[in-house]
Amino acid sequence: MTNIKDLIKVQKNFFYSGSTLPLKARKQHLKTLKRALIEMEDEFLQALHQDFQKPEFESFISETGYLIKDIDHMLSYLPDWVGRKRVSGSLLSFPSKSYIYHEPYGVCLIISPWNYPLQLAIAPAIGALAAGNTVVIKPSELAPATSAALKNLAHKYFTPEVLAVVEGAVPETQELLEQPVDYLFFTGSPQVGKIMMKAAAEQLLPLTLELGGKSPCIVDKTANLKIAAKRLAQGKFFNCGQTCIAPDYVLIDKSIQDQFVDELKKHIHTFYGDDPKKSDSYARVINHKHWQRLVGYLKDGHIEIGGEFSEAEKYIAPTVMTNVTKDSPVMQDEIFGPILPIIAYSDESEIVPFIRQYSKPLALYHFTTNKKLRESILKNVSFGGGVVNDTLEHLINPELPFGGVGVSGIGAYHGEYSFKTFSHEKSVLQKSSWFDLPLKYPPYDGKLKLLRNLFKIS
Ligand code: NAD
Fold first, then answer.
1. Backbone angles phi, psi at 370, to 5 degrees
2. Are residues 42 and 132 in the same domain?
3. CA-CA 20 to 30 A from 291: which of 23, 34, 217, 430?
4. 51 lines ligand 1 (CB under 6 A)
């Protein structure tokens, strides 16, 4: 089906037929999605490699394998979450029972970015289908091979009334945003997030925004430096640094900076060898525009590690920079590439004010054994989610809500949070007629005193 208007109409009619509501149907959709991911795994791995030379290991752990585990988790817990949930009532409403019904919204539009082009299209779809919705996915045009494979998945395994993929760029997205869909789930940049919010405002459309920002990584002088350098290098250079929750920059105690840079050097060499360009474990920058933007940052400080690049291969070596100032371009916007600026502080009291100069980050990482400082940072810095003594891993625990705060996002998903994101919580108070409390009815003479006594507000 090529006509976007008709597609939305068809999904809406299908949703109103009630076919997506039974638990059995939802489970079936999830099982079909799992089968598709298993049967099409090679096609996706190849597509991801074609789009930005993503290593197979990284594609498995963060895309295909990740999603299959995500579906398993959803299938195990979904029966506990669907249907209505009884909650306690109020004496004033006696005799009654109160319930929360988890109601699907209807047609959910999922707009996804290029950096995890499979995961970020399908993970929200898992939540949407589990909650009993229909799904339209608009993948990113910047990862065209994965976008085509997603289209293929929808075509081969689903009827368009349940799940459809609309490929395209801005015009297609704009057309989709003009349709009477019922929920918008957007993952991408804060700049485009604003466009999404404006479009959603036109229809008062409920939405989730999963955005980005500059996620700090603090290394204080009590940290285990060997482990910190190894884990930080893995989290930063995974996916060639093109991860929304990648550590964007390091804030480090001045007294340990040189030692830390030496440790980073060792680990980057162990990970990617003498020439990371030849490594099968290292991806590429997505396109020339981003490559040029990133190469521009290389002049913003002293290059301690890496710094090599090749335009023909859209390659930039894993790079670590010192002597970077807050005003340099690399410290203005989210880096979103394999460049790690290190900024030294002389006193721990500088940490919180430094981070607060930026908008609230999507993630924060802190390598430390100092409990007091750890708790003080966690209490005083607002961020979406984070990890103490590692990076990225909060994303893989489905018990943790994943999302930003303020400019880094609105709303959250994963596990039960995905189910809730794609469900409206409908409140229903069901009253019995065998007794009718006279207190609430006019005339009120003498009743106010009784009510005040009942409320214990004299
Ligand atoms: P982007 O905002 O440029 O694009 C995202 C989607 O929006 C794409 O499908 C694109 O086609 C569409 N789009 C782009 N411009 C548009 C416009 N003018 N009108 C309508 N639609 C438009 O983001 P990107 O470059 O694909 O991804 C990188 C950004 O996404 C980074 O900021 C990163 O931090 C963020 N991100 C966030 C998360 C998260 O979970 N919070 C995950 C991955 C990426």
1. -95, 100
2. yes
3. 217
4. no
Gap between the Cα atoms of 227 and 233, Å rounded: 10
* Ligand 1 nearest-atom number relative to CA 140: 9
* Residues acting as catalytic residues: 210, 244
CATH classification at residue 58: 3.40.605.10
Place of tokens 């507000």: 457
pTM: 0.97
pLDDT in tens, 145-203: 999 999 999 999 999 999 999 999 999 999 999 999 999 999 999 999 999 999 999 99
CATH of residue 241's domain is 3.40.309.10
The response to whether residue 241 sits with its C-beta less than 6 Å from ligand 1 reads no
Distance 19 CA to ligand 1 centre (A): 32
Number of domains in the chain: 2
- State phi, psi for 304 to the nearest 5 degrees: -95, -35
Q: How far is the CA of 142 from the centre of ligand 1 (A)?
A: 10
Residues 414, 387, single domain; the answer is no
> Which residue carries 């670590």 as its tokens?
320
Question: 194-218 in b/e burial notation, b at 16+ Cβ within 10 A?
Answer: ebbeebbeeeebbbbbbbbbbbbbb
